[in-house]
Amino acid sequence: MGKKFQRPRGTRDILPVEQKYFKYVQNIFETVAEEAGFQKITTPTFEDSKLFVRGVGKEAEVTKDMYVFKDKSGNSLALRPEGTAPIVRAYLEDGMQSLPQPVSLYYLSNFFRYERPQAGRYRELWQFGLEVIGDKSPLVDANIIATVWRMYKKLNLTDISIQVNSIGCSVCRPKYVKLLKKYYSGKLTKVCADCKKRYKVNPLRLLDCKNDKCLEIQKEAPQIINNLCSACHDHFKTVLEYVDELEIDYELNPKIVRGLDYYTGTVFEVWNAKEGAQNSLGGGGRYDLLVELLGGSKTPAMGFGVGVDRTIEEMEKEEIEFEQKKNVNIFVAQLGNKARKKCFKLLNDLLDAGIGAEARFDKGGIGDQLKTASKLGVEYTLLIGQREAFDGTVIIKDMASGNQEIFPYEKVVKVIAKRLRSA
Q1: Whose CB among 118, 244, 279, 397 lies 3.0–4.6 Å from 381's, allowing a Cys bridge?
Q2: pLDDT tens string 361-383
Q3: pLDDT tens sequence across 61-96
Q4: Band (265; pLDDT cuts 50, 70, 90)
Q5: Which CATH superfamily is 16-172+228-317 part of?
């Protein structure tokens, strides 16, 4: 007996029973995005690893968790760990700067990060994202927050909250970082090992730590929102005014800093209202420096990414029910060799007409086939026995009422199509 293979640690098989959630969430997210004027983009599964090192930051956790490999030509490639840098690369490489600005894009893709697997976190994860490139208006920030809020409302998720902050710009952030480091300088013996590193490499992430002893120290830390320059203050104030106009529930949260180097200005996250930061469903913000950093001219941009896996987990927690469109409405049953050929032809006639249908050609008895039809929950079963095969007729059985009618073979597809339309 050969070796039994197992899926790699941190990955999972998305089985047919779970696919209904993925299909439902994908449909809601994509419909809301397209109705708001976003267009879909798909980038390669792997990119030049330097794209993420330069764009996301060498010390960012996302970069450290990349799956990096060399191809046969010796090029260093990485399975994409996040979606924004590849989209900016595509924006520049594919000449989207010449399109009417801003360019509004969305994506639904799988991403790869070598992080510790846990509930809702996988090494292969699915993420949906929105990106608006080429507009510095604070209304873009407010509109993305509104679009994200609308997505979750359409999913009927209620236990969520929007957490909003501003992390300033190249003018005011360095001054704030000095202030923050000064506050932490006498407390480094009390923080966790990760925060000792963050103090040197990315001080803003000190505010993002979930360690209990670090949370206590965070309480008295200076807040960047009180240290914004006039431009960042006015921008953020306008964002909040427009979000207020839509009566969207949000919380000002000075601890929202995001973990990627390209963020600047407005940042926000979607949390589970009960579990808070321990269960962040997604986040985003402005990245006005990234296009220039990757070789383009200075171009403002704003984006958001949400974990599809975590969103589905949240739906299951809240026991959200939804109607799933039934794709298979007809079962075709047969008895005898001649009937089997007629059945095979009828099955394909139905499928050619866009009518979902199934058959089980390995099932011998009509009784077994009818049991299968019941399990599938079809509306009608079409039966062809030896007599029907000889007469050129088909029995239409209504599975709900049990009523049976006989029709000429050539009329059956039209009859079924009419009944399904009027249902």
Answers
A1: 397
A2: 876 688 888 888 888 888 999 99
A3: 778 899 999 999 999 999 999 999 999 999 999 999
A4: very high
A5: Bira Bifunctional Protein; Domain 2 (3.30.930.10)
Instruction: Name the amino acid, one letter, at 384.
Output: I
Alpha-carbon dihedral sign for residues 105, 108, 111, 116:
positive
> Around Cβ 220, how many Cβ atoms within 10 Å?
8
What integer is the mean pLDDT of 132-141?
Answer: 97
Distance CA 69, CA 125 (A): 19
Lowest mean pLDDT of 163-172, 184-193, 275-284, 299-308, name the range.
275-284
The domain limits of the chain are 16-172+228-317, 330-417
Chain segment 56-70, per-residue pLDDT in tens? 877 777 788 999 999
* CATH fold label, 330-417: Rossmann fold (3.40.50)
